[in-house]
Amino acid sequence: MTRHERLLYLKKTTTLxxxxxxxxxxxxxxxxxxxxxRMIENAIGILMIPLGIATDxxxxxxxYIIPMAIEEPSVIAAASKAAKIAKRTEGxxxxxxxxxxxxxxxxxxxxISKEIAKQKILINxxxxxTIANSKSRSIIAKxxxxxxxxxxxxxxxxxxxxxxxxxxxxxxxxxxxxxxxxEAIAPKVEELTGGIVNLxxxxxxxxxxxxxxxxxxxxxxxxxxxxxxxxxxxxxFAYSDTYxxxxxxxxxxxxxxxxxxxxxxxxxxxxxxxxxxxxxxxTYRSLTKWYKTKEGDLAGEIExxxxxxxxxxxxxxxxxxxxxLKILGVKTSNELxxxxxxxxxxxxxxxxxxxxxxxxxxxxxxxxxxxxxxxAGAKSDLVDRIAKRITDENNINITRAKEILALxxxxxxxxxxxxxxx
Length: 422
Ligand code: MEV
Fold this sequence. Notes:
Layout: H1 3-13, H2 18-25, H3 27-30, H4 33-39, E1 51-59, E2 62-69, H5 75-87, E3 92-96, E4 100-108, H6 114-123, H7 125-133, E5 140-150, E6 159-168, H8 175-193, E7 196-203, E8 210-217, H9 219-222, H10 225-240, H11 242-262, H12 267-278, E9 288-292, E10 298-305, H13 319-328, H14 333-355, H15 361-375, H16 381-392, H17 398-421
Antiparallel strand pairs: 1-2, 3-8, 4-6, 4-7, 5-6, 8-10, 9-10
Helix pairs in contact: 2-13, 5-14, 7-8, 10-11, 10-14, 11-12, 11-14, 15-16, 16-17
Bound molecules: (R)-mevalonate (MEV).
(R)-mevalonate is lined by residues 72, 247-248, 250-251, 254, 351-352, 355, 360.
C-alpha cells in the first residue's frame, strides 16, 4: 500500500478521526514548540522517529494493528511476519496481572529496635493507607509492608527498614501518584518510629504487574523440523550465555520499546524492569522460553513486568500517542500490556528464526541499501534504482552508491539532451 492507502485503511478500520489522521501525517500541526517547552527543560526542538504499523496480530481472539515507533529497518516486517505465522494456529494467548505497583520509603536512623519500629508501622497501617489514599480518587493504595535491609555496598551503611506501599494504579502507569503517596506518608512514618525517611519513590521493578504470553508456531510455516531444532539451539544459547541473552532480549525489546514509544509509555522503566526480571535467578537469561509441542511445532512463552498506562502522563497530552492508542483500540492498561508481550514474543521468534536460517542481513540490507543511496545524495526514483544496484552487486556502501549516482545522473542527462535534439 502507499502511505495514503495505509492511512485510508486505518481510517476505515479504527476510530481514528480526520484530525487524528492529520496529526499522524503532520505531527507539528498539533504539537507546537510551546508544548515541547512545557514538557522538558531547555527545549530546542523535536526529534522525529518513523511511525509504522505491524499487522496480523491475533491476540486473545482479537486482531490488532500495532503502531510502532522505531528507526531500525526490518523490525516491523519481522514482527508482522511472525504474527502471520502465529495466526495460522491460534495467534497469541496473553494474560496480565492486576496493575499493582510498589512505592518505597527508606527508613533510617531508628532510635528504637527495627522490630518495634516495624510493629508501630504495621499497627498504624490503616491510617497510613488513608493518608496515601487522600492523594488520589482512582489510584488506590491497597496494602503496606515493611522489610529489613542491610547495606551490601563497600560503604557498609548498616541496617534500614524499607516500607512498601502496594498500589493499584488501574489504567495508569502510576509513577507520579505513587511518588506523591510515598511523600505523603513519610512524615507519619517518621512520627511513628522517630526515624528519618530518606528516599520516597516508585519501584520500577513491577513484579506484581507481570504479563504473560504464549503462541504456537507450526513447524511447516517455520520452514520444517530442522528450523525448529535450530531455533531450540538458539534458545539454548540465549538461556545459557549472558553475552547471547543480552542480544536475544535486545531483539525482544525492539518490539516492546517501539510500541511503548508510539503509545507514550515510559520505555526506560519497562526496559529496566525487563532486564532485572531476566536476571531474577541470579544469572541474566532469555526473557522467552521455547520448546517443542508433541506435534513437533514450536511453542514460545514470554513473561515480564509491564507497567504501562492508557491514562495520565504523556498519554493524555501527546497527540500522536493518543492516535496510536486509538489505532490499537485498547480499553485497559492490561490489554496494552498483553499487546506488548505479544509483540516481544513475535519479535524474538522472527529474529531467532532468521538467525537460525538465512541470517538477518539479507532483510536488513534491503532497507539499509535505500538509506545508503539517500546518504550518497540520491533523490526520488534514483533511490530505488541505486539501492537495487548496490544490493544486486552485494556492495552496499556509500562510495559505490555515489559512483552509481554519478553514472545514472550522466545517463539521464544524456537521455534528456537526446530527446531535446529529437
Ligand atoms: C537486532 O536489532 C536484534 C537481533 O540482534 C536480535 C537477536 O539477535 O536475537 C537480531
